[in-house]
Amino acid sequence: MKRMTWDEIKTNFPNQCVGLVQVETGINGISVKSAIVKYSDTENNHGAEAVSPSQLLRMARNKEVVREYTSADDCNFWGIDSV
Q: 3-class DSSP state for residue 53?
C-alpha cells in the first residue's frame, strides 16, 4: 500500500467507499490531501483489502480508519447506512 493523493485515490478507486489511514488533511483540516487506502468496499488490485460498507462504518466509528467516498454524488455520501 502506498500513499496517494486524493485525486489518485479517486482515479484508482472510482465510486467506492474507502478506509483511509495515515491521512494528511488540507489547510481546512477536513479535506483529504493524501492517505493510504487500507480498505475498499470493492475487490480491486491496488492493495486495499475488500470489506463490506458496514465493516468500514464500524472501523470509522472506532477511529481505526477515516471512511470516505470517492464520488461526492454517491447516495450514501454522508456515511449514513440505509436500514
A: helix
